[in-house]
Prior knowledge:
The protein has 4 helices and 8 strands, in the order αααββββββββα. It is of the alpha+beta class. Strands 3-2-4-5-8 form a 5-stranded antiparallel beta sheet. A 3-stranded mixed beta sheet has the order 1-6-7, with no helix packed on it.
Amino acid sequence: MKLFKMALVALVLLVNLVIVQPSWANPNLTKTPDYTEVNQTIDNLLQTKDNPNQSEYAPEEIERQLGELKLQKYILETANDWAQCSNETGKTLAVYAHKPKKAAQESTLYFLGNGKTTDDDWNCDGVYVPSGAKVGGLTSVDAAELSEPLALKVVSGTQLVAKTNPNTGAVEFNIEPAKVFKAGEGTWSIPALSQADIDAKLPNAPIED
């Protein structure tokens, strides 16, 4: 009888491992809203590409957008963790993050210290850049600084690294944002903060141990 009970317990444990996804299992990012949205946008662009006379975009712009979207799709299909943001800017970085296991939790603004990376149990949804900032790809010679704060979104699974270019002083990212929001767009809170305001904040972002 004792042997039978032990065998029964072992069988139950085995069934749990096979059927129930373990809490430590890698997230399946192809089941996220990001994946659905990226695929839909790719389909829309491919239709636009097939009907160039009905599009406001030049063929080169369509190809550029398709390239970025295909990279986002690849990240979502191959990533083993939720998105993480690494701060190598030399100053505090404002990031948006949420706990994926908590249903329908809104992305919240946190402050990530220099040299830190967000916890992979959290999803780093993107970064906040204040007005007056220099940002690679967003500012130029004609407009050297941002005139208003922006939120830069990345897809789940992205390993985003922010660095400061020592020659230009601009913050640069290793990957293009999936979306760029202004205040009043999207659902994220985009407050009016300066970099000095951000630097004065106590870092509170969930980080890797």
